[in-house]
Amino acid sequence: MGETKHQGPINATKTPQPKHWVSPIPFGLGKVKPQHFRDTMKIAWDNKDNIGYATRILTKGVCDGCALGVSGLFDQTLKGPHLCTTRMNVLRLNTMPALKEEIIHADIDQLRQYSSTDLRKLGRIPYPLIRRRGERKFSRISWDEAMDVIATKMKQLDPKQYAFYLTSRGITNESYYVAGKVARFLGTNNIDNASRICHSPSKTALKRSIGVGASTANYQDWFGTDVLLFWGSVASNSSPVSTKYMLEAKKRGTKIIVVNPYSEPAMDKYWIPSNLESALFGTKIADDFYQVNIGGDIALIHGIMKHWFEMEKQNHGSAINHTFVQEHVNGYEELKIKVEEQSWEDIIKSSGVTQERIIELSELLAKSKNAVFAWSLGLTMHSFATDNISQVANLALLRGFLGRKNNGLMPFRGHSSVQGSGEMGADPFVLPGSGFDAQNINRMEQIWGFEIPKWQGDIVGVTLENIVLPDIHERKIKLYYLSGGNFLETMPDPDFVEKALSELDIRVHQDIILNTSTLVDAKEAVIVLPAKTRYEQEGGGTSTSTERMVYFSPEIEGNKNLIAEARAEWKIYIDLAKRVKPDTAHLVEFKSGQEIRDEIAKANKDYEGIQHLKKQGDVFQWGGAWLCEGGICPTPDGRGKLISIDIPDLGKKEGQFIVTSRRGKQFNSMVYKETDPFNGASRYDVLMNAKDASHLSIAEGEGIVVYNGFGVFQGKAKFVNIARGNLEVHFPEGNFLLPRGRYEKYAGIPDYNITVTVEKADRYNARKDVQYIEKRIEDLEVDIPQ
Known about the structure:
single chain, alpha/beta, 6-stranded mixed beta sheet, 29 strands, globular, Mopterin_OxRdtase, FdhF/YdeP family oxidoreductase, Mopterin_OxRdtse_a_bac
């Protein structure tokens, strides 16, 4: 069956529909809500020193914010211009001048007074820097000296002792590809990227269930589907442009349902600035909220399926699409047995949702001819994340919500081109085009012309732990090469992370700006390399959106605040290869972005077509409009697989809470506002249910302590509409509660959810005086000489 191509952008419904309005009072005056227009004016003011260049980035470049893939002001979904606050907030990273010399060469303790937010605002890294052991300040260094220090060290080390990491801040497919190729050329498989700590389970789950690790649908499939169901996703906050699509979907009759512990205000009511009707009167987005416990999604889905099987006993075909299952799906009988053995009592207890409400959702989905399931970090950041997503896939396979218009499975990615990172091979488990298996290794060795190391590389979390291995250990990491990222503010157990980073011999930060992790000591040297942004990359570059659109973003001229010594990221990797292995470095040489794209098209067959992207507006979608079109999956037998699992036990004891993290007004770990414009919460507020607080005699605004055996978080109680027994704290502030070393078994994502105890601050501190309740972590303690 031939691939159906995406039809390109379509017209939005123009007729106003007052039934979706939040309020007839224009602009939501008097309500707690984002001030989009005011913020836009402020951002324009912040960029006034480089306004022409800022304008060209917005009108010519592909958005380096979220993964919706807006090219210039336009995308492939709806006609008309799009602009959102996430993109505007990130804009200044591309337009600001260099850091002042008196700041960058200040005493290190002075620099450490700054938060990452403060450091970001100070400006871009102007030239290569080094800070050797014992030195109090960064010194300027030439590119040749900096690269020679790194290369000399690499030559001394076993390739198992160094590692690469690439974040998601506007890095292009070309840079991901070259980084992956150079890492393997240098002999290491220790290369990982930012999706490890956001969406890696989406890929592993979808590969297991349907044979492909990407969104099977498009945003246009939201328009007129019967149900658009968001699981653990605050799409309106992470990707504000998506609210425009939600409004269009509602106007065409789609019912939007959110499954989330917290009834997120941004998914309830939103004022969409690029739509006049919504900017004036707001949009009621969600038609219904199902407030599930943190970690209770599997139980909820088992409840939906359990009722489906009960419906089937009464009336064959009333819930299951038997034709689709018989033709395209394996594992039906095993799943039926597994689901039927779950008791309603266990389902209700784990999910936190009543049987009546579960049946209501179950019947709605059974009666729907079409549905799109989208999810984000609420499903992915668990120790059983792959199983979470496989159960969502089960629902789609049982109903046939796959491989056709208005249906599909959509991991809702938050960052531009992070979809491309694994597809380019910047991941320990993959090479371009497929997995890290013997067949694909052999194929890529033919294309690359050099031998690829056969040992299994480590994920980022394990790599950090390997830094503190004994000196003689063959996998002790001694050099870490980082393209962006700040592990201090993204990984669990920040105290350990800081200790690990300081025990590296050499740490390289290839980046646009400084952050708090750049300022941590190293045993021999910290080297900082100024990178170009995607808009400065010679010959342009490409990025891959959530819906598999590969967009070309041209090089944009006219930066008044040009960083003369900044280099394109892919060029730095090639320079490194030439210094470490000069005799064979011609095997990784690329003269232009076009040459890289030519090779990507050969290395990853899905990317056949990327070589033709050459100018602004060029785009293609790999895989066509729908993956698994006609129900045929890219698995060995062409069939999807239903996955049977048990409801997980979260180990929550009586009186304990489960805490998860949420993002406020921020992008990744970059915080843009101390107060969340949707709910008024500050960064150290603990979101909790008022009834839970009353039970503990906690008043709103009162100081409370959230603690467990791993850490302590001190904040203030803020009452919100969240399922009882659940708490939310902001990321990264709450990461001190999370232990290191707990990874999802299939995808290696750290677990960002944990059981905790809550107490009034005065009671906790009074008890602490007589009974020290924090667990000692001996490897973080040092003996002070007497």
